[in-house]
Amino acid sequence: RRLKYPLPPMASPSSKPAPKSKRRVESGVCWPLHPPKTCGHGGHKHVPFTSTSASAIEALLASYEAAGGNGEEQAALRKERRWRFNYPRHFFDHVKSAAQSPKAALAMARGGMDYLTSRFRFVQKDGKTLSLGEAMSHPRAGFLQTFELNGGRPRPGGGLSLHVPYAGQSLSGAALVKQLEAWKGSGVIEPSCVAATRFAMDLVASGERWDTCRGNHAFVVLGAGAAIGPTATLLSLGATVVAVDLHGRPWIWKKLAEMVQGTCGRLVVPVRGGGGGKGKEHHWTERAGADLLTEGPEVAEWLARVCPDMTLTVGCYGYLDGQKFVRIAMAMDAIATRVVATRPRTSLAFLASPSDIYLRPEAASKWAGQRFAARPAWMRVANVVSFGKFCAENRTKIRAREGYDLVDGTVTQQGPNYMLAKRLQQWRSILARASGTIASINIAPASATRSVTHNTLLRTAYKGMSLFEPCETFMPDTTNAVMTAALLRDVFDAKSPANPVQPLAHPMALLADNAWHGGVWTTGMTTASSAVPSAVAGLVLENQSALATVAAVGAAVVLRSKL
User: Fold this and answer.
1) Cα dihedral angle (504, 510, 512, 514), rounded to 10 degrees?
2) By C-alpha distance, which of 304, 395, 326 is closest to 51?
3) Phi and psi angles of residue 44, each rounded to the nearest 5 degrees, phi first
4) 384-431 pLDDT, tens per residue?
5) Phi, psi of 137 (to 5 degrees)
6) Is residue 263 a contact partner of residue 236, using CB atoms and an 8 Å limit?
């Protein structure tokens, strides 16, 4: 039969086959290798393979096993075949088990971290594979040198002021205290946040006392160019910031140089080739930086000798999308623990996400219950027509400890890799504090970072959150300022729960203090059940038309699968 469009000529036997696509071989900190068909997650019959799902499941299994086991939950984990969609339930059950006693929480944290640190690999560029411990013990000595940049502004004789950008204003002093009280009064923040911020305000305004603190202390910021981090605020307050971010991206370092200009702060960065230095070298941005994934041993070796006369706080703020977030979280953990081993007075710092599972104070839980009872009619209708999936009550009715219940802020679309990365940072902070190290880990509010505002679904969901009182989305510069205040309180206030000398009712209560949850704990509806209504409302607010309203409501079914 004659074809309208003739077929292309067949290749002759002597023709060379098309080249296979070359898959990039990952190096540095890499996921564990699993035997074929581990946990039922695929794999070739005879070839070990990597599986983020299998690794996360095995980490939770190891965590349970370290605390004596939980047969029912361990069996459910082993049978799980839809991990990407069902992971929130398993993490919730895991936190519920850890909340039963301080002993269980510590044992489960230790079991999970022991699994991750022993199973994650470090692959060198020549293909040789080492354990994380072996890699951190054999850095290239002297690979990184030190470059310093001063802001140029003389340190004032009196104190400084903590400024918090908010709603087009720069709040400080009485105006900042007034706003803190307003946030507390509406349930956007926990009451302890007010006291913590006021401590930081008084500290930086104290003059001689703050000069002593900042003169003896340096803040290491792993991921210094991240959207959410303390770099800019610390520099504005005259602190010494040891900044680590990627090499080969001079625009990151130029931005950091702009942050320090005009301040009385000091920026200390790692550079390679040509030795270190100070001051006005024009090409230092080309030499600055290190890759946390592939050059972690060298970063740890450099931090062991940088600012030798100062006490360090190592903050882990680096972020990458997807499965790389777990890898960089493990890289930062290996660096931080190595520095603590070589410089024992070092403290650790992390930021937690409100989209997780926590011990929640009873007062916040009651507030959420009252708001759910007083919810408007449309939320009641949405809950009924969705068979309970939309606008569900934000109370789990699980009393974890006296004075606390469990709050579930998880949202499925964030993914299990994000949850595992945040979980391992919680585990590390709990274990570090138990071993005598100051561990600052505070919940940061949802923030409108560039990655959020460029994503239509996330942007509209954040915009529609205002319908769920008192939820509020913060701008990044606001978040950075208030979380820096929380960090200063944890590091310099001996009465902070971050300090191991202070008793805690439960290790996980560390995250209940000073929680800037943005209203997630006190709103009437769970975050997961309000995501789709928030996105629909955000679309309507953006478009402001009847047609947009109809289209948004009609798109709710599609959004439900993506949000």
Assistant:
1) 110
2) 326
3) -75, 155
4) 999 999 999 998 877 766 789 999 999 888 899 999 999 999 999 999
5) -85, -10
6) yes
- Phi first, then psi: give them for residue 49, nearest 5 degrees: -140, 165
Residue 48 has pLDDT above 90, yes or no: no
Q: How far are the Cα atoms of 64, 65, 103, 371, 417 from residue 109, in angstroms, in the given order?
A: 9, 11, 10, 34, 17
Kind of pairing between the strands at 439-443 and 347-352:
parallel
Ramachandran region of residue 391, left (φ > 0), alpha (ψ -120 to 50) or beta?
left
Contact 434, 342 (CB under 8 A): no
Q: For residues 257-268, b (16+ Cβ closer than 10 Å) or e, as one string? A: bebbeebbbbbb
Q: Is 165 helix (H, G, I), strand (E, B) or coil?
A: strand
- The predicted-structure confidence for 18-46, as pLDDT tens digits, reads as follows 444 444 568 999 999 988 764 455 555 56
Whether the CB-CB separation of 237 and 480 falls below 8 Å is answered with: no
For residues 482 and 188, the answer to whether their CB atoms sit within 8 Å is no
How many angstroms separate the CA atoms of 111 and 109, rounded? Answer: 6
The yes-or-no verdict on residue 310 having pLDDT over 90 is yes
The length of the chain is 563
Amino acid at 182: A
Give every CB contact of residue 419 below 8 A, 6+ residues apart in sequence.
Answer: 87, 88, 91, 356, 410
Intra-chain end-to-end CA distance of the chain, in Å: 50
Query: Which segment of 49-63, 219-233, 335-349, 536-550 scores lowest on mean pLDDT?
Result: 536-550
pLDDT at residue 277 in the model: 66
CA dihedral sign of residues 458, 462, 468, 472: positive
* Residue carrying structure tokens 């290749």: 11
DSSP 6: P
Look at residue 290 in the predicted model and tell me its pLDDT: 97
Q: What 3-state class would DSSP assign to 94? A: helix
Report which of residues 520 and 539 the model is more confident about. 520
Q: What are phi and psi of 15, to 5 degrees?
A: -65, 145
In the chain, the amino acid numbered 207 is G
Question: Looking at residue 12, what is its pLDDT?
Answer: 39
CA distances from 33 to 37, 43, 129, 290, 547 (A): 11, 11, 11, 26, 52
Q: Average of pLDDT values for 188-192?
A: 97
Query: What Rg, from alpha-carbon coordinates, does the chain have?
Result: 25
The answer for 294, left when phi > 0, alpha when psi is -120 to 50, beta otherwise, is alpha
For residue 326, give both structure tokens.
């777990």
What's the angle, vertex CA 273, arms to CA 271 and CA 277, rounded to 5? 55
Tell me: cis bond preceding 470? Omega within 30 of 0 counts: yes
Say if residue 159 is exposed, middle or buried (CB neighbours under 10 Å; 0-12, 13-18, 19+): middle
Report H helices in 304-350: 323-342
